[in-house]
Amino acid sequence: MIYEKPEFRPGGDRNILVYLGDEMSFDLNFLVHTYASKIRDAEIDGLVELIPELASLLVSYDPDRISYDDITRELASIRGGIGGLTGLELPSRIFYVPVLYFDPWTAECVEDYCRTIRDKERDADLMVRLNGLTDRQQLVRVHSGTEYWVAALGFWPGLGSFLPLDPRCHLTAPKYNPPRTWTPKGTVGMGGSITCIYPDRTPGGYQIFGMSPMPIWDPDQRLEAFADSLALFKPGDRVRFVPIGREEHDYIAAKVAEGTYKHPDVGYQSFSIDAYHDWIGRLDPQERF
């Protein structure tokens, strides 16, 4: 549920966890980012940093400039001024992300896990079975058939948590138990109902089934898209996965290696939650592609 009033929980003497609800939903996350935007606009003296997450925000502040009671009073007032979801809009970019589904690199990662840690049903086949799909090709159609909302960044620098915006494309997947010790850079995976792209070679626990040659994290800032930030995505962005073949994958990878790759995005647009609710209200969520 979405709370009528925010819940404040101290995190040491310089941080406050602010909870706006207790569910993992697009509506709640949209409210979180609207709230974060309003807090930034308020320019509260003593506010140091905001980190929005799925259902909450971490607020860092300087206790020498503003007290806990005063900043929570300010934060509560800002939340009260927002009210409900009706009429809310946020600026949102959309990125088109090329993906080679069922690629050899994630397949080898899964096989290595099965050889060295424990045998398991292969990731794509597990997702097909658990989600009532007919085959791997339907998995591709469903997974790539929606825009995704970048709900938060975390776990690893540049790693976004993506929520599907089309209810017909809702999928779920359990996490590995135990997790993998390594995952290839660029891997597309899913855990729970969240999709992610692994920005670097890291441990991981999501089911994996694709590879994107498009970098989303560039600590050296070699490519134009990273001129202002080491991470490609920001919370409130949208992502659309575009299935590609091996030839196109290798072409993009070569451009990235050369430093000439241009990330495909369509700038900022205004995302209206009213228009979104109107759209999904006309859909049959049981329909699959």
From TrEMBL:
<keyword id="KW-0547">Nucleotide-binding</keyword>
<dbReference type="Pfam" id="PF02682">
    <property type="entry name" value="CT_C_D"/>
</dbReference>
<dbReference type="InterPro" id="IPR010016">
    <property type="entry name" value="PxpB"/>
</dbReference>
<dbReference type="GO" id="GO:0005524">
    <property type="term" value="F:ATP binding"/>
</dbReference>
<keyword id="KW-0067">ATP-binding</keyword>
<dbReference type="GO" id="GO:0016787">
    <property type="term" value="F:hydrolase activity"/>
</dbReference>
<dbReference type="InterPro" id="IPR029000">
    <property type="entry name" value="Cyclophilin-like_dom_sf"/>
</dbReference>
<keyword id="KW-0378">Hydrolase</keyword>
<protein>
    <submittedName>
        <fullName>Allophanate hydrolase subunit 1</fullName>
    </submittedName>
</protein>
<feature type="domain" description="Carboxyltransferase">
    <location>
        <begin position="6"/>
        <end position="233"/>
    </location>
</feature>
<dbReference type="InterPro" id="IPR003833">
    <property type="entry name" value="CT_C_D"/>
</dbReference>
